[in-house]
Write a structure and sequence with these properties.
two-stranded antiparallel ribbon, single chain, mainly alpha, two-stranded antiparallel sheet
Length: 276
């Protein structure tokens, strides 16, 4: 029981995002069903979650810049987005933490939504009258891109294929999203570009030692004037992350049972420490 509670605590952001997406899908599905059987006013409910494809309409419902990124009305759209979020979000949190997952999800979605509005204003053909933006694809793609930059050589073992590096899986899934698996119109694909661009930028900044989702959003260069013990803590965090990667690689190659008792205790300690 304690291990389950600890797992939920260490993944609370991921589970919260999954829960919100699933709850909104359930609510809108029930509303559609009620509307079909005699209460047509319920068909208006999705409009409170969808992001309009025009600036003038969006100004009347500005909260949709946030609600659209947790809204899906088709099961496959929800299923694939949540599946990708679980895969990549878990890997991201294993090395960076929950703050980064939440920040990437929200900022990737916001950037995608704003780019969608810009496209609606500057290239109206992309967003025909009455078009709306829904789906967590932009947010999930931001998580994918950042994770691929962070751990490009992390390897999955896929049935019938074998070992595949994370960067190639990310490229394949991003291509699928752009050709329409994520749903939406051409304007929706513009939002996908925003998500990928933001996630890629965050991944590149991390590789240069700049963490915009850190406690203070400062780079190592900016922190050089701070007390030596702060720099020491940063170095220790990086060593811990590297050691955690080594243990995870060993599990991937030889299985969990290949770890001895000391390594298992070390894995648990590092997992809890890094995800705080």
């Amino acid at each position: 029981m304690a291990s389950v509670i600890d797992m939920v605590r260490r993944h609370r952001v991921l589970y919260t995002l999954l829960g919100i997406n699933c709850a909104v899908f359930f609510i809108l599905s029930v509303a559609a069903l009620v509307a079909r059987f005699g209460a047509p006013e319920w068909s208006l409910l999705p409009g409170w979650f969808e992001m309009p494809g025009s600036v003038s309409a969006w100004i009347m419902r500005p909260w949709t810049l946030l609600t659209y990124m947790v809204t899906q009305v088709e099961f496959l759209h929800l299923f694939f987005n949540m599946l990708w979020l679980i895969w990549f979000g878990d890997i991201l949190m294993s090395t960076l933490g929950q703050r980064h997952l939440l920040g990437l999800y929200l900022c990737g979605g916001v950037v995608g939504g704003l780019l969608y509005l810009a496209a609606a204003s500057w290239v109206p053909a992309l967003c025909p009258p009455g078009s709306v933006l829904i789906g967590s694809s932009a947010s999930v793609l931001a998580v994918m891109a950042a994770t691929a930059f962070r751990s490009p050589d992390y390897t999955f073992h896929l049935f019938f294929i074998g070992d595949v590096r994370l960067k190639w899986i990310a490229v394949f899934m991003i291509v699928l999203a752009f050709i329409g698996l994520g749903g939406g119109n051409a304007g929706g694909q513009v939002a996908h570009i925003g998500g990928v661009a933001f996630g890629s930028l965050q991944g590149l900044l991390l590789r240069r030692g700049i963490d915009i989702f850190g406690r203070h959003g400062r780079s190592r260069q900016q922190l050089r004037r701070r007390p030596a013990k702060v720099l020491s803590a940063i170095d220790q965090h990086r060593r811990d992350a590297a050691r955690l990667d080594e243990l995870l690689d060993k599990i991937r190659i030889s299985g969990f049972n290949s770890l001895n008792k000391k390594e298992r205790e070390e894995l648990d300690r590092l997992s809890q420490k890094i995800t705080k």
